[in-house]
From TrEMBL:
SUPFAM superfamilies: PK beta-barrel domain-like
Domain of life, source organism: Bacteria
Gene Ontology molecular-function annotations: catalytic activity; molybdenum ion binding; pyridoxal phosphate binding
Protein name as annotated: MOSC domain-containing protein YiiM
Length: 194
């Protein structure tokens, strides 16, 4: 490496993935309240959150088949999406779209299925898929659903409203906690809606 390249490399900012907010709600409401900390429970989800459980807890999924496994125990959203929404004229705070964990510095949507996120000192979540934005988003802010679901250049649907996961290892998570990623062995399997 040349001296110039070494100096440029040393001057480049290093961004680490971090938790920026944590949220939960014991009721089936659209938004979740920001709290100082949440506790993840292995195999269940977020302690004190309405979506906690081994089987599905989302009302539409319970109505379809209440015995389905809960692959949506934890909802994660990247703060960069909030920035994008703000640029489009929608001021959306962390937790407002129902996420439990808001992150910064990590391409959540680009992670493969089966990726594992270590959140803080102990908690570990395995990524199961994409959140499928629902029409309730427009009830929260008219026109917001169009910002959460788009199409790529090939006409494929692109879901931008975060990812879902299951809790492998419990633990407490707070804003400011670091996030580390462990990718699964084998080929990269893109996330699909769950």
């Amino acid at each position: 490496m040349t001296d110039h390249a070494a100096a440029a490399s040393a001057a480049a900012p290093v961004t680490a993935a971090v938790v920026t907010a944590v949220s939960r709600d014991a009721e089936h409401r659209f938004s979740k309240d920001n709290v100082p900390a949440i506790r993840l429970l292995a195999g269940l989800g977020v302690e004190g959150d309405t979506h906690l459980g081994v089987t599905v807890q989302h009302r539409s999924r319970v109505a379809a088949d209440p015995t389905q496994p809960n692959l949506r125990q934890v909802h994660l959203m990247h703060a960069e999406f909030h920035d994008e929404l703000r640029d489009a004229g929608f001021d959306v705070a962390a937790g407002a779209l129902g996420e439990n964990v808001t992150t910064r510095g990590l391409d959540l949507l680009g992670l493969p299925r089966g990726a594992r996120l270590r959140l803080g000192a102990e908690a570990e979540v395995e990524i199961t898929g994409l959140r499928n934005p629902c029409p309730q988003i427009n009830a929260y802010r008219v026109g917001l659903l169009k910002e959460c679901v788009g199409k790529d250049a090939d006409g494929n649907v692109v879901r931008k409203a975060g990812i879902m996961g299951v809790v492998l290892r419990g633990g407490e998570i707070r804003p400011g906690d670091p996030i580390t990623v462990e990718l699964p062995d084998g080929p990269h399997v893109p996330l699909e809606r769950v």
